[in-house]
Amino acid sequence: MKIRRIDAAEITATVKKLYTDMNYYIGEDILDALKNAENTESSPIGKNVIAQLIENNKIAADEEVPICQDTGMAVLFVEYGERVVIENGSFEDAVQEGVRRAYIDGYLRKSVVDDPIFDRINTKDNTPAIIYTTIVPGDKIKIIAGCKGFGSENMSAVKMLTPSAGIEGVKNFILDTVRYAGPNPCPPIVVGIGIGGTFEKAAMLAKKATLRPINTANPDKRYAEFEEELLSEINKMGFGPAGLGGDNTALGVNIEYFPTHIAGMPVAVNICCHAARHKEAEI
């Protein structure tokens, strides 16, 4: 079995580019959804807000400045090929260095503090990033990266439902979470939902769901239909762009699921602002 060697510097350069690019350039899936929302929005104020978002994204790309002042906390989902060996450093250190260089060299706001309760001293480089790694067959490394602002992160929730809650219980929890969030997460939003696994697995699934392009559907037809149903119900809430009223409270709903225990049905809702910044690369 042939081993592939990758220099740590390549990991660092790749991660740096992912984070600078996602902060400067809106994803094509999000841009297309915004254009569609502008065409379908019946509220003049809502239509104007979406037009401003599109213009803001164009300016950010043209001038290579952040789409939003909150450049988020770095989260990466990594599929690490079992036949890969990192040389001249460790994978963990290489990723953290890539995030560090992106936020320092790219003039992105550093928002991470070293202790959540007591000291809360800024780390000054937006590290540490949060890295979820899965070992997979092969000799490649796939990185799906996102940066999560906390205006929307603070509106997210996890609930441990029991199987008796059924699909209606799942639906009600999701809609209640979005309704409670209201205008706070800067709508139009992207809603990531994780169902199954354990308490922490559901939350990880919800986070990963926010990084899935919103022009894709869950491959399971039942979940794909549930995504569409939830999107429709959320948009009926009428919060609209920037919470000023309208038809487009959400641009997309993505669901990921995982097997779970016979006695449980964990559900997590991770809300993103319209930017839903995400990029991926394969090395």
Plain-language structure description:
There is one protein chain. The two termini are 19 Å apart. It contains eight helices and ten strands. It folds into two domains: 4-23 and 67-148, no CATH class; 150-276, 60s Ribosomal Protein L30, Chain: A. It is α/β, with parallel strands linked by helices. The model has no long low-confidence stretch (mean pLDDT 97). The chain is globular. The relative contact order is 0.21. Strands 4-2-5-10 form a four-stranded mixed beta sheet. It has a four-stranded mixed beta sheet with strand order 6-9-7-8. A two-stranded parallel ribbon has the order 1-3.
Supply the key terms.
60s Ribosomal Protein L30, Chain: A; 10 strands; 4-stranded mixed β-sheet; 283 residues; alpha/beta
**Euclidean distance between termini CA atoms:** 19 Å
The tally of beta strands, per DSSP, is: 10
Q: What is the CATH-assigned architecture of the largest domain?
A: 2-Layer Sandwich
Radius of gyration: 19 Å
Number of helices: 8
Mean pLDDT: 97
Number of domains: 2
What is the highest CATH level, the class of the largest domain?
Answer: Alpha Beta
Structural class: alpha/beta
Low-confidence residue ranges: none
CATH fold assignment of the largest domain: 60s Ribosomal Protein L30, Chain: A
What is the beta-strand fraction? 15-25%
Biggest sheet, open or closed, and with what strands and sense? 4 strands, mixed
**Bulk shape:** globular
What is the helical fraction, as a range of percent?
25-40%
Strand order of the largest sheet: 4-2-5-10
Order of helices and strands: EHHHEEHEEHEHEHHEEE
